[in-house]
């Protein structure tokens, strides 16, 4: 009965991955990942720079946080690489640190890093919001639409917006004794005409393609069809309370356009009556669960009940499922490889809901009583 949807957080992550089509962004992201891994793989090297999370492909919120911390400590990281390349460390460490130092001090890397860091920060709040259990998908989708409009405004005023980023890149380059200039033209491309203005060159080659890729991916992945599907959330009384009757009728018509072959022909009329019923009441509407509306509407508003069922199938996020995978990896170590499914499930639940267990004062007593119900020849020692 419902359209196929990606997980909303996954969709936003795919937008970020689409930026790999821009070669400068792809190369910069790869170098960042290599530098972070280089420092994290050694305990001694970890102490040289601030702690930076891994640039992980699956931990989406950590990706934005990692880039932000890396950009904030970029000068410290580069100087640490330079010192390691000249230190008395083993030859493998010196070679690797010199290679990373050379890659990180190129003008293209410095400029691209500033662009990625600034605009990744705009996605981080959305990514964190999409990982909540009780998110409002329509609100998030509206925020994405506003974000696209804002990015389009930046794209139209690219010369003004990039001036600030380029000035910051020059400050960092001066501190690292690097000259911000276009790359050398290969002999086989000697007929290629490059801009004499350095700022214009980096704006055309990096900043504009970056924004074009982000805007295009956001529009494609958060399409208008999905926006119409999110209109099903407006059937909640709390959403209807802040809508005028005309707005609600327009929303009902959008729902009919998408699900008209599933819903009955009098859906708009039935939904309007549903709207009037809730707007005349005085019951606190924000406390009503979305699924409870199915029972409230199935007898007198069957078409509305079917629409609510469809809305309930819309995916919010798979982050909770993926967190359970991470919990399973922490719990099921090699020492516990032979445990049964019941015990493994119980330990995972305790790990996930450890805060709630800490608030339950009788949890330990109940666990001991449950443990004692089965005959075991074990001697338990408890110390106060």
Task: Summarize this entry quickly.
By secondary structure, this protein is mostly helical.
Structure in words:
The chain has 384 residues and is mainly α. It is built from 20 helices and no strands. Helix 7 packs across helix 9, helix 7 (107-130) packs parallel to helix 10 and helix 9 crosses helix 10. The radius of gyration is 28 Å and the shape is flat.
Give the distance, in angstroms, between the N- and C-terminal Cα atoms. Answer: 58 Å
List the uncertain runs: none
- Helix vs. strand class: mainly alpha
- The total count of helices amounts to 20
The tally of strands reads: 0
Q: How would a crystallographer describe the biggest sheet?
A: none
- Strand percentage lies at under 5%
Determine the fraction of residues in helical runs and give it as a percent range: 55-70%
- The overall average pLDDT, rounded, is 80
- Overall morphology: flat
- In N-to-C order, the SSE pattern is HHHHHHHHHHHHHHHHHHHH
Q: If you compute it from the alpha carbons, what radius of gyration comes out, rounded to the nearest whole angstrom?
A: 28 Å
Provide the fold topology.
Layout (H helix, E strand, L loop, with lengths): L7 H11 L4 H18 L2 H4 L13 H13 L1 H13 L4 H14 L2 H24 L6 H20 L1 H18 L22 H24 L2 H7 L6 H5 L3 H15 L7 H13 L12 H6 L4 H12 L5 H13 L9 H12 L1 H6 L3 H10 L12
Helix pairs in contact: 1-10, 2-6, 2-7, 4-7, 5-6, 7-8, 7-9, 7-10, 8-9, 8-10, 9-10, 13-14, 17-18
